[in-house]
Automatic annotation (TrEMBL):
Record bears the keyword RNA-binding: no
Organism: Lachnospira eligens (strain ATCC 27750 / DSM 3376 / VPI C15-48 / C15-B4)
This protein's name: Preprotein translocase YidC subunit
Gene3D superfamilies: 3.40.50.12580
Taxonomic lineage: Bacteria, Bacillati, Bacillota, Clostridia, Lachnospirales
Superkingdom classification of source: Bacteria
Keyword terms of this UniProt record: Cell membrane, Chaperone, Membrane, Protein transport, Transmembrane, Transmembrane helix, Transport
Family: Belongs to the OXA1/ALB3/YidC family.
Length: 633
């Protein structure tokens, strides 16, 4: 440090002799240090650009190997070596700044002790230390703090690396820098604070000059950066969607993850997002269990999934709890012959196909009988190998989509809908109504501008007094997110004995007992009409379209035209006709029964036997895989 202070002392003395003002000498000394260190600053600028340029690739690594810290570290290291990036480079300016600061402190201290210069600058004594000379010297820490704040503002907005940091990082660094500057301003000579202030101001000028000379926009793909940041943020958000997990669930997940990969030669894996999805697999799973020796590995992201209770009685089901974050890694390392899912958009977002095996048959099971083309995102089926189609409309939509977008052909299985078969069977066993009072069920969707949000009270006011038993069964999301609104509805109609606002969804009996359903675009309409062969009155609220390109394939979605086949449609300005329309539809119930039954038989595959059809296809694919493995041995 003595050698450094001696060298800096020569430079400072040169500046003082040139300007005859110690304050101006400090400012000139600061400028000279910036010029001398310019090559280092240019190197740091290029290194920072390189880092931000790599960030989309780093984000892709984080997405691809999410949760696998070892793999992420290894891939990042390879990327750094490939791009010749030094992650420690950003520390160099800070280290140099600290060394210079210590040197300047020594130089100014020597100057004071030896009295080699006039220490006045614009009437201000550069030998003052605020904590020892209160009064005018209080300006010192204020000026130093303001200069640090200005530098942080400039860096947060324009420094190629700092601009991409999180708000916590940006404002954390700002608080630290301003705090450090205030501290220095209070405890060091005013001359040192002047150097610090000048250094900050010159750093701001240098920042904009370097951005002009070496513009980051010429090197960084900011569009790709934003896309990967958004995708990574979606994955990060998964862990908070269902709240924090307890320690037992985290420990359980770790054990199940290890257990899943300890099993070799897995033939069949089902994945369920939650307990409510088991009903879509139930018929297929039961057929496989009753007719084969195949072990079913059932992965769920719900720690309370009913599959765990079912597995206690069925040894051929092996359940695993894997949370949504850990699922990303599990799916990338998947090793099985057939994977069955109800989740669309595999490969399009965070859930990917296996990187371990390329011959897995991914089978998509729809959880609705409506249009896949309109109610799913563009390309939602593109990366599945097989789709179990509920009816000929779904099959035609996928075939036409493959033709229009020039996609590889998938295996389209004429399956049906196992849940519908089960519901029709249960409905046939239900006891007949003991009275002649007609019941109407209002079952809205959760999409924007649904019945609850737009016209529910008008419908109720129009229907009451006509002798109907009216039940409002809001979507579960309404009950969850709008409890106050549901309570207000209950309060308003508490004295109307013919109106019930039902928020308990434990039973489906209310659905199937109704003589008429009123809904908007809810998928419950299919289940109700296809099961009971009773009509549905549709309120024409704005349609929810997940795929803006749905018209491109030239097939009108079932969701639109089917409404006129199994019921009638009222526009929003026709709500005053609800009671009259309902009366006419109830009077024609026998006609509707025959026409809806015929419609279901025409547009739903394998009515009454879809479970065996879906199961046999999966069994066949497993047998093909086993044969293929033997041939490769």
């Amino acid at each position: 440090m003595e050698i450094l202070s001696t060298a800096l002392g020569y430079v400072m003395n040169f500046c003082y002799k040139l300007l005859h003002d110690y304050g101006l000498a400090i400012i000139l000394f600061t400028l000279i240090s910036k010029i001398v260190l310019l090559p280092v600053s240019i190197w740091v600028q290029k290194n920072s650009i390189k880092m931000v340029k790599m960030q989309p690739d780093i984000n892709r690594i984080l997405i691809k190997h999410y949760g696998d810290k070892d793999e992420i570290a290894e891939e990042q290291s390879k990327l750094y070596k490939k791009e010749k990036y030094n992650p420690l480079a950003s520390l160099i300016p800070l280290i140099i700044q600290i060394i210079l600061l210590l040197g300047v402190v020594a130089v100014i201290k020597d100057g004071i002790n030896e009295g080699v210069a006039n220490m006045k600058f614009c009437g201000y004594d550069l030998t003052w230390i605020t904590t020892k000379q209160w009064g005018l010297s209080i300006i010192t820490p204020i000026i130093a703090g303001v200069s640090a704040w200005l530098l942080c503002v400039a860096q947060n907005a324009s420094n190629v690396l700092q601009a991409e940091q999180s708000k916590l990082n940006k404002y954390g660094m700002m608080i630290f820098s301003v705090g450090l500057s205030l501290y220095l301003g209070c405890f060091v000579y005013a001359g040192v604070a002047l150097y610090w202030t000048a250094s900050n101001i010159f750093a701001i000028l240098q920042l904009y000059l370097l951005n002009w000379a070496i513009n980051p926009k010429n090197y960084v793909d900011y569009e790709a950066l934003e896309e990967t940041k958004k995708e990574l943020a979606e994955i990060e958000a998964l862990g908070t969607k269902k709240g924090k997990r307890n320690k037992e669930d985290i420990k359980r997940e770790k054990a199940d993850y290890k257990k899943f990969f300890s099993v070799v030669n897995k033939h069949l894996v089902f994945y369920s997002e939650g307990s409510g999805f088991y009903k879509y697999f139930k018929g297929i799973i039961e057929y496989i269990l009753n007719n084969t020796n195949i072990t079913i590995h059932y992965v769920t992201s719900d720690p309370d999934d009913q599959i765990f209770r079912i597995a206690e009685k069925e040894s051929k089901i092996k359940p695993y709890y894997i949370g949504e974050k850990k699922l990303i890694t599990l799916m990338m390392k998947m090793d099985a012959d057939v994977v069955v899912m109800t989740m669309p958009d595999i490969e399009n977002y965070h859930i990917k196909r296996s990187y371990i095996r390329k011959d897995i048959n991914y089978v998509y099971v729809p959880h609705g009988m409506d249009s896949l083309n309109m109610t799913m995102r563009t390309g939602s089926m593109d990366h599945y190998d097989s789709v179990l189609c509920t009816g000929k409309i779904q099959k035609e939509e996928i075939e036409k989509t493959e033709e229009v977008y020039n996609l590889p052909k998938k295996e389209l299985v004429e399956w049906g809908y196992s849940l519908l078969d089960e519901m029709r069977e249960d409905y046939a066993k239900m006891p007949k109504k003991e009275n002649d009072i007609k019941s109407i069920l209002i079952a809205p969707s959760w999409q924007k501008d649904n019945i609850v949000d737009s016209c529910l009270e008008d419908i109720l006011d129009n229907l009451k007094g006509h002798g109907y038993k009216i039940t409002v069964r809001p979507h579960p999301q309404h009950v969850r997110h709008m409890p106050e609104k549901m309570e207000r509805l209950k309060e308003r109609y508490k004295d109307d004995t013919d109106i019930e606002i039902q928020t308990d969804f434990s039973s489906n009996s209310t659905v199937f007992e109704a003589d008429l359903m009123i809904t908007d675009w809810s998928g419950i309409a299919y289940e109700y009409a296809y099961t009971t062969c009773k009509p549905v009155l549709f309120i024409d609220t704005p349609m929810k379209i997940m795929n803006p390109e749905y018209k491109k394939i030239g097939i009108e979605p079932l969701n639109i035209w089917m409404r006129y086949e199994i019921g009638r449609v009222l526009k929003l300005d026709e709500i005053d006709k609800t009671a009259d329309t309902a009366a006419k539809m109830l009077a024609a119930s026998d006609t509707y029964k025959d026409s809806i039954d015929q419609f279901v038989k025409e547009y739903v595959y394998n009515l009454g036997s879809s479970a065996s059809v879906g199961a046999k296809y999966i069994i066949q694919e497993i047998q093909k895989a086993i044969k293929r493995h033997k041939e490769q041995e």
